[in-house]
Amino acid sequence: MKTKGKPWSFRAKFLLSTIIATLVLPTIAAVIFFRGELSSTKEFIFNDSVTFAENIAQSIYVPLVFDDLVTATEEIEGITKNPQINSICIWIQNEEDKKNGKALELFCSTRKESTEPAPDSFSPSEIWLDSVLRIIRPIRSDGEGKLIGWVVLDRSLSHLVYKKEKLKQVALTSWIFIIIAILFVIVWYQNSLTRPLKELTRVAEKISSEKNYNLRAKKMSMDEFGKLTDLFNDMLDSINETNKQLLIAHQEMEERVEDRTKELTLTNEKLLSEIKERERATHELIETRDRLGKQEKLASVGLVSSNIAHELRNPMAAIRNSTYFLRLKNNGDSKTSHYLEVIDRELSRSDDVIQRLLEITKGETLRRQPTDLRELAREAMTYSNITGNVHLVLSFEPQFFKVNLDRILFRQVLCNLFLNAIQAMPEGGKIALVASKLDNGQVLISVSDQGIGINQKDIKKVFDPLFTKKKGGVGLGLSLCRELVTRHGGTITAKSEENQGATIEILLPEENPSKEQPTPVKNSAELTSI
Questions:
Q1: Could you tell me the pTM of the whole model?
Q2: How does the average pLDDT of the chain come out, rounded?
Q3: How many whole angstroms separate alpha carbon 79 and alpha carbon 155?
Q4: Fold exhibited by the domain 363-527
Q5: Does domain 10-178 have CATH number 3.30.450.20?
Q6: CATH code 3.30.450.20 region(s) in the chain
Q7: Distance between CA atoms of 507 and 488, rounded to whole angstroms?
Q8: Eight-class DSSP state of 101
């Protein structure tokens, strides 16, 4: 795409047009005049030379007829005294020579040597050479007009050359003088013409760039440009006054807009505050409703759980008495003694769990003690892995450390987690427990399985009471785990991808084993849900 060049300024256009009008046109006229002068001079020289040659051809006839060489020579020498005539040559040819085919011969000449062309080339002509004009004319008899010879006259062109050089000098001198005079006039004229325009342009550009309407153009003359400058300054006065009025109106408008904006902002803030307050109240109502619903469920479950725990102790006491009676009647059978000890141990463990759960239900604090988590995990796995088709893999970092826990309750947490993992792997598999002590003193415990996993839409619900996806499940296992972990001051979360297993992460806070931290007491109905 072609782009236009920078436009010419008025000054450049004025200078160019003035130069063309005052230099080029007179120069063309001078060239035409000089050519006319040279042409007229050449015509004069031509006519004068032809006249000389024809006169010689008439006057030289008699000496040629009488073969008078002396007279002929004197006559042509007299003519060559004219400084413009360089030389004259007379060539003759008689009838006998013409019949014999001989060439013309030189009869007389004012030159010592002749370099004339061959006789056959003679014809009436005018030849312009570098420095001479050569005129060739025939010599004929008066009566018969018979050709006797030829006159060759060389006329000098020094006058023409001189005049040409003189004209060149005059033209060059005149042209230089004219240029100087014209340039002086142009400079003076363009200054008087363009200075006011430049001043107006300068002020206009400065006003456009600086937006300062207090600037005024200087008056350079009292002519039309001076009047234009006055009109320009008057226009600036009018624009400046209008601009001041616009600024005042603009400032008033901005103040009104600012006041209105503040009012709208305050109103908007009030509306947002009311909306947030309503949202918060709505959220609290929803949470209260959900909490009341859960508490109603937990109250019912807690009541049933308390009755179950109370009713379980009577048969457990009967089983323990029966175990004691069977041990007395045992006749030393080691296998029977072993199973009786297992029954008695499990009854004691179940009684301890029920007793501890009932205690925290009544608001008692946890019985924390430094616990070997590795040993506690193996013990929980022993109680949970009834079928024996699942194996536990332990990993600790650092290798050996103890955690301040309520041993019985946290063992129940691990039992519930292992039992869920075992039920998720009916064909058996591996359960991985990874425990690590973080730099901030917290303990991170993760339990992973290779089961069917948890659906992503159920991840946030698995710790809710009575929520279960298992056939015949009650939905209290993970709820119990969250309750017990929360009592330890920790958090529990679930991660899973469907058909790729699940991972439960427990984060326990940093604790001082020598000091037991207080545990918040919750609603008894909520605690008895475990």
A1: 0.40
A2: 77
A3: 11
A4: Heat Shock Protein 90 (3.30.565)
A5: yes
A6: 10-178
A7: 10
A8: T
